[in-house]
Each structure stands twice: as C-alpha cells, then as structure tokens.
Amino acid sequence: MSNTADPVNPVSAPESPVNRFYRTVWRWHFYAGLFVIPFMLVLATTGMIYLFKPQLDGLMYHHLLFVPPGGKITPYTEQVNAVQSAYPNAAVSKIVSGIAPNRSTEVQIVAGDKRHLAVFVNPYTGDVLGNRNEDNNPQAIIRKIHGELMMGKWGDYLVELAACWALVLLLSGLYLWWPRNRFKLFGTFIPRLSRRNKRVFWRDLHAVSGFYGVLLMGFLILTGLPWSGFWGDTFAKVWSQFPQYVFDGAPQSTPLTGSLNQKGIQTVPWAVEQLPMPRSLGTPETLSLLVQHSHSDIPAEADRPENTAVNLDSIIAVAQSQNLPMGFSVSLPADQTGVYTLAAFPNDPRQERTMHIDQYSGQVLVDVGWHDYNWVAKSVEMGIAVHMGKYSLANQLLMLVACLIIILLCVSGAVMWWQHRPTGRLGAPAIPTTVPSWRVPLVFVALLGLAFPLVGFSLVAVLLLDYLVISRIPLLKRALN
Length: 481
Known about the structure:
8-stranded antiparallel beta sheet; two-stranded antiparallel ribbon; alpha+beta
C-alpha cells in the first residue's frame, strides 16, 4: 500500500519530524516489499490452488475416490488384506474411512520400493481400485511448496520470516495510505483508474486494494503462522496444554502426537500436536494404569468376551460407538509399544477428536476433543479452518479474494518500482537528511521482536545495516538510493 501523495517525491516540505518519520517508514516499506514479494506470490498462488483441493481431487481422482453406494461394508481387516495381497512387500501405516457412503476407503502404505502410496478400496466389494503416489501427488507438492518451498526446515524458516515481514509491510502500508492532509473519496477509498496517468493508476490500484484487503491478508498471515517451524513450534509448546485428566496415569512415550503429520499429510489437528503419545502395555499388571476418559463408554477389558483380539475392526467399532464423524483415520501402532490412533479432522473443528488406544487391551488411553481445548487452541483451529476454506464454498471464495489481492499488491508494487526506478540504481526511498526520533521505531521493533523473534532480529539487522553501513558508504548509498 502507498499514500495518495506522490510515491516518487512524497516530501516537498522542509524536513519536519513528521516528514522524516514518513520517509523512514516508506523506506522500510520498500525494503520489506523487495524481500516479501517473491514469497507472497508463491504463497498466494499455491494457497489459491490448495483452497480447492476437495474439488480438484474429485476431478483428478474421481475413479479412485468415488464408488457406487449400497450394500454391506466389507470388514476393514479384509480391505487391508486385499491391499496387502496387491502390494505384498508393503507396510500399512494408516486407514482412512470414506467421508460419505459413496466414497472409497483409503489405505496408506510404504511400498517395497519405499514409495508412499495411498491405495483405494471399494468398501462394499473389497476390490482394490488403484493407488496414488503421495510423493508425487500434486496437492501434496503444492502444500510442501506453500509450507517450506520444498527446502525442508530452512525453507520453513524463510516462509515464516517472509510472513512476519509481510506484517511489517501491512502496518507500514496502512500508515502510508493514511491521507496526510484530509480524506478524499477518490484516491483514498476509490481508485482513480485513469489510463492517462499510469503513475496514479498503479498507485491507487495498489493503495486502495491494500486498504480493503488489509484485514483479510493479516488474518491469512496470523492463522498460517501456527504451522511455522520456529514461531509456530514455540507458540504450540506454550499454548497447546490440556487438563491433567486427559492423560493422567497413562504411560507416556517420547514421540508426540504431531509425529503422525508427515509427508505433507495432516492426520491430527494442530491442537494435539504437542500431546505426548501414550504407550501400549496391556498386561494384567499394568491395566490399572490405563485411563479411560470419563465420557467414554468403551467396555472394560473384564467385560469383553474372553480371548477377543484387538484388531482394526474392533478399533473402528470404537470410533463408531463414539460417533466419530466419517472420514476419520486409524494410524496403526509403529512398534510393540505403539498405539492405535483414531483421529477425526473434519471441516468443522468442533467435531475434532483424537483417541489413543492400547493395541493389546483395546483400552482408551487418551481421548481429546473440542471440549478439552483451551481458548487459544480453539481460536487457532477455527482460524486454520477458515484459512483453508473448510467451512463452505463461500469461505473458499473469500480466501480466494484475499489471495488475489495479495497477487495484485505484489504485481502493482513491482510495476510502480520498475516504472520509476532510476537507471542503474535500486531506487530505494532516500534516507532522511537527519535521523528521525528513535522512540517510535524502537517501540515498534521491540513489540515485533517480542511477538515474532525472527522478524525482530532481522529488523534490527536491517536498521543497523541501513544507518551504519549503507548511509556511510557513498558507493552503496548511490547504488541503493
């Protein structure tokens, strides 16, 4: 966003404190834009595609996802046996029930050649319909680009840093948009799209669209940050806490429930990622340690028929008795002390449910749902649902508008710079002739540093580089200004 004043020569009056601060903020806005624009274009484009994942999956994999409804559901153990017969060297890791009567069962496996495949089974006939390579699944690739630029944790940090700097861009842009004299309808709230004056055309297109989109863009950034590697992980450790009764007495292991979210596939909600995974014990001596949640009506081991084995069908029977919404997943135990994990992650976060079940006794060790979340976890989960457009088509279209505004701001900002940049120079707004008061900038930096450490450190580095290096070396000053 930019002010309705001339973006090339915004300060014609003597260098008053207000003008000096305005010029400093404009310079921050310029540098932030140079860094953020490439990342924001990638995030907006990939986010725009991923918003419509349900519709795109339906078009691309219709023959795998949809089946004629009717008849009796084939036992899930038989469906998995059919997959193992078709892929004899594969290891089954997760089963996802169909989200509707006309949807297939998804069985995730690691094939003998180490490929991660999603195999689809007709739940009524037990026939294997085919597979989808999750390593090359376009939607999984889009999500990895969106989250980490296909660069692992360092890409994750870059995306987080760009998102935090985008907040700087929004705040500084809002300040620059604010009229310095008085509000005018045209140029402030309505863009002047005159073809005769390209400078005014692009400036107003940038400033006015930025003003109307600032809340949407800020929402997208803030609701995406909980998934980031540095800030998001720290934020989750602080705020993803549960009442002690959730796992009091359950034997815990080192892995966290969030370890089930792998390969760009979300198995469990953000709210439970920091929840310790319990261990399966299942011996008579240790059954007293196994905690059954107060609202669970799963029969105790003593009430079960003698020699009843715990298998996939009995675990899914638990899900059905607990009224988990369709589309829930069952992650299989990873080893001899692992647990079955039932996870319901529907579009409505209020229906989320995560249950860890002992693989030997069938006892529920941990059962976490919406009512166990604290207010922060509930806010994050609802924000993520809106961010991903999970509520409705209207929700998807609203987030699409936000992505399009981001793209428009990136393009218009780049065009304004390109049209008016000095030949052979970067064209950054000039450093004020006298250093402005540091009181407001320091407060700004301190608040951002406390809220978002990565942007705080980088902002301090940029300020020091700008005022202690660039402004004091004539060659750099000529090249960058």
